[in-house]
TrEMBL record:
<dbReference type="Pfam" id="PF20393">
    <property type="entry name" value="Pro_CA_2"/>
</dbReference>
<dbReference type="GO" id="GO:0008270">
    <property type="term" value="F:zinc ion binding"/>
</dbReference>
<dbReference type="GO" id="GO:0004089">
    <property type="term" value="F:carbonate dehydratase activity"/>
</dbReference>
<dbReference type="InterPro" id="IPR036874">
    <property type="entry name" value="Carbonic_anhydrase_sf"/>
</dbReference>
<protein>
    <recommendedName>
        <fullName>Carbonic anhydrase</fullName>
    </recommendedName>
</protein>
<dbReference type="InterPro" id="IPR046871">
    <property type="entry name" value="Pro_CA_2"/>
</dbReference>
Amino acid sequence: MNTTNRFVTSINCMDGRTQIPVINYMKTEYVAEYVDMITEAGPNKILAEHTNKSAIESIKLRVSISTEKHDSKVIAVVGHFDCGGNPSDEETQIQQIREAVKIVEGWNSNVEVIGLWVDAQWRVNKVSPQFTPVSIDKLIEMKKL
């Protein structure tokens, strides 16, 4: 990427072990000065499952502040190894990341939304997009958010 982003955004776990690796990745890969950190315990699960509406609305509000006030053009949705808030296995979490990316993309079409997986060695890995079938009920629910 050729241009400098003053701000980028990360929807990350509250787990302190993920903070520095994700900040370093985002600053390096997206040539950013600052990373707005929006933290929850297991945010990929929260977004993918659609069961905690207040948490989703809180995340959405904080993302809008980052994109509108800080002009962030990149948002990362992060999951990680050994997550206390989302004790699912890696495969499940990566699928949740993919689903969460689709949800966040629906909030703002003017930004790039990526998925990141932080592995057992605390390395950050970009999650490749993959076709994920979504039920009509889930699509209707996503529109309401």
